Amino acid sequence: MAGMTSNSSLTSSIIQYVIFLVTTGAILPFIDRIGRRQLLIGGALICMFLHYTTAGVMAVHSHHVEAVNGDENLKMLLPETPGKAVIALSYIFTGIYGLTWAPTAWVYASEVFPLKYRAKGVGLSAATNWVCNFQCPLLYCLADYLQIFNFALAYFLPPSFKNITWRTYIYFGVFCTVMSIHVFFTYPETTQRTLEEVDALFDSNIHPWRSANVNTDRLTARVEEMKSGSVDGETKERFDDEERKEVA
């Protein structure tokens, strides 16, 4: 679509993976300082903006063709400058994803499963990811972030680019919008909490968007109560009331 030759496409893919590797490694020491929710929500919002921007550039500057380099699934071609802009947006997207969702999603998955099912849950998450990736190589630079849906994307992207062209990026932007809303309302903050405290956090009635302000000592007390088996309905209600007052 951007008028790239096969060698240029290979070079572009190499650059993309280098960006992905560097950004993913660079953010690892800072995940605990920034917070899981900030990275996930911020990453989804920035990726949403990048997808909508890509769609806008393509909508304004692309023109219809019957095929691109013999590929009849591609029905639009971009001039050189807008094409470079789309490639740059793809690089930025890869970097943002590498800084946010790529490492944080795996960290979060290892923290949120109950202790009894944590090993099985993380194993199932990894297995699902790799099975889907085995079925579908990277088709386009934007497809990497939805690894869990790669099998479906293998069948969706070619007819999508053929029939709705640049509007495909609108769909991905909508997914990112939904992701940011979903994380905001359902993902509690797990940064700098023990696994037992995370279990206690899920067991409480604290809203996820207020979970970062929950006192760690309060969660520790709840964990000790849970270990001793003395958390009855009245005690749990008292803990919940105190925690809600703290974060209000």
Automatic annotation (TrEMBL):
Write out the transmembrane intervals: 14-32, 39-65, 85-109, 130-157, 169-187
* Membrane topology qualifier: Multi-pass membrane protein
Please state the protein's primary subcellular location.
membrane
Naming one, the record's GO cellular component terms include: membrane
Q: Please report the name of this protein according to its UniProt entry.
A: Major facilitator superfamily (MFS) profile domain-containing protein
Any GO MF annotation of the entry: carbohydrate:proton symporter activity
Task: Enumerate the UniProt keywords alphabetically.
Answer: Membrane, Transmembrane, Transmembrane helix
Matches recorded under SUPFAM superfamilies: MFS general substrate transporter
Native organism is Hortaea werneckii
Similarity annotation = Belongs to the major facilitator superfamily. Sugar transporter (TC 2.A.1.1) family.
Q: Where does the record place the Major facilitator superfamily (MFS) profile domain?
A: 1-191
**Pfam families the UniProt entry points to:** Sugar_tr
Source domain of life: Eukaryota
Query: Quick one: where's region Disordered?
Result: 225-248
- Taxonomy of the source species: Eukaryota, Fungi, Dikarya, Ascomycota, Pezizomycotina
Q: Where in the cell is it found?
A: Membrane
- InterPro entries with a match to the protein in the record: MFS_dom, MFS_sugar_transport-like, MFS_Sugar_Transporters, MFS_trans_sf, Sugar_transporter_CS
Q: Which PROSITE patterns match?
A: MFS (PS50850), SUGAR_TRANSPORT_1 (PS00216)
